[in-house]
Every structure is written in structure tokens, then in C-alpha cells.
Amino acid sequence: MRIGVIPAMIAVVCLPKLGTHHGMKLFLTGERFTAAQAVDMGFIHRAVPADKLEAAVQEEIDMISLGGPIAIAEAKKLVRRVPQLSREEGFAETQPWSAKLFAAEEGAEGMAAFREKRKPNWVKE
């Protein structure tokens, strides 16, 4: 690398997002990249101009807030956990997880709201 060391510590966070292909190029060259390129590489999911940042953050918050609070928390755990599992382990672990959430009060409210074509009334914890 350009300064005689490798990006070892940040690789733990960056490589799962960048993948081997982009990671190899960037780690070997030290090349800088734009926000648009970061989106293209899958490193981030969205880039906006600085003057639109606050509105873009609010849009993301508003979209996330449409979900049930428990489901949102569990989805974050799901996204972190499933990639660590084999396909077989993934199905074995997620089946009871899913059943538990479908059977819970929040899941029942969400499904009822969907069937009745109305907004769900989430209970904030």
C-alpha cells in the first residue's frame, strides 16, 4: 500500500460490503472513490448532495418508521445473523423466529392492517 501498511482493521468492516473484487482493487491501489462510486460498489445504498442530506435522512427515517418497532429491531438482528449461517442453518434458525413474530401481537396487528387495507396501529415500547 502507499504508506507501507495494509488496511487490516477496516477490512473487517469494509470487505463484507465491498466484496473481494472491489476490495482487492481499492486495497491494492489506495484509490479514492466518490459517493456515487460507493453506491455502485454496494458500499453504501444511497448518496445525496450535502444540501439534501437532512431531507434524505428524514425520508429514510419515515420509511423505517412504517414498520412495527419490534419487527424493525428483529430485522436488524436478522440482517446481521443470517449471512453467518449456512443455508440449512439459516432455515432452521429463521423458521421459529418468523413463527414467533407472526404469532406476536405486533405481527397480528400488521397482518390485520394489511388484510383490512389500513395503517397498522403499532404499540410503541
Description:
This protein is mainly α and 125 residues long. It folds into two domains: 40 residues, no CATH class; 53 residues, no CATH class. Helices cover 65% and strands 0% of the residues. It has six helices and no strands. The mean pLDDT is 93.
Helix/strand layout:
Blueprint: H1 8-29, H2 35-40, H3 53-64, H4 69-81, H5 87-103, H6 105-115
Specify the structural class: mainly alpha
Total count of helical runs of at least 4 residues = 6
The rounded Rg comes to 20 Å
Main sheet overview: none
Mean pLDDT: 93
Mass-distribution shape: flat
Please indicate the count of domains.
2
**Topology, number of strands:** 0
Distance between the termini: 49 Å
Q: Which percent range fits the helix content?
A: 55-70%
Quick rundown:
The chain is mainly alpha-helical and 125 residues long. It has helices at 8-29, 35-40, 53-64, 69-81, 87-103, 105-115. The protein folds into two domains: 8-47, no CATH class; 63-115, no CATH class.
Task: Supply the key terms.
65% helix; 125 residues; flat; mainly alpha
